[in-house]
Amino acid sequence: MRVFVPQKHGLHSPKFEYSNSKLRKYRESPERIDKIVKRLSLNHRFMISEIEGKESLSKNGVHFDKMIEIFEKIKVNDYLIPDTFNIKRLEREPNECDAKLGMYLFDTATPFGPNTADVLRNSFMTVKEAVKYIKKTRENVYVALRPPGHHAGYDFFGGYCYINNAAIAAVRLKKAGKVAILDIDYHHGNGTQDIFYYSDVLYVSLHADPATEFPSYWGYADESGEGEGYGYNLNIPLPKGTRKQEYLMALRNALEIISNYSPAFLILSLGLDIYKDDPLGTFEIDRDGLNEIGMLINVLGVPTLILQEGGYALDEIGENAEAFIEPFS
Ligand SMILES: [Zn+2]
Prior knowledge:
alpha/beta, binds zinc ion, globular, two-stranded antiparallel sheet, Arginase, Chain A
């Protein structure tokens, strides 16, 4: 199975994030992907391709131009965490870089640094290569990339995410057939939901109940899509501490809906933060459970583009990724 990795991801490496009223060590670190790649490179089933190239973000085809223009043009010497947020969505553009970012940012966990834009350009290129590959071969492919993407919406970013990798892939794959997105990250993919809320790209998400978990304001069961998108957005919030058996039951329901939709391609937002010892999660899913989840999804028999989202249990992330992905290889 082919694995694509953006070569430059390590150049985006904020030191801190501000969360739960404290300045903390940044969790979404380069080590996450380095450990996954190291582990997969020991397994002959996986063929790893590092992608060096970059593509201008203006061609992303998903996000609001002005937000992307700020990412492309901003020049900073260090990681910025804005402290003022444009909650009324006013269009006035201030001069200060942190205030420019605050126009579209929704949290304090997503600092923007000197190399962030370059890393995003490299990510974008990597996603495009993976799309090209799956279109041509109809074989499953895994993209081990960071920063993750599923919290980045049409005109907002946050939750460690800047551009939405799943959406960037979906708009391109859509030209070759129907696309469904399954998001199994511990957190709701509010960005992906936002981008496709009015369109018939099916988005199905299993995640921790937003009443008690990030991203708090999105991800409830009654968010079903609108207009042409009505009925194509399915949220399955699960209580804190959900065990494997209950999780698998919910997953089977989700897979039945995806199967009835008959997609030509499946995009899978893979969050390994559903793992039992993840510092950001509470679900009771062990490594065998991750393997079982992978097997069940693979039974759909739909060519699947797997994109790495969350997952912060650094000591186990390599083995966990391998256990999950192996059924697809
Ligand atoms: Zn997550």
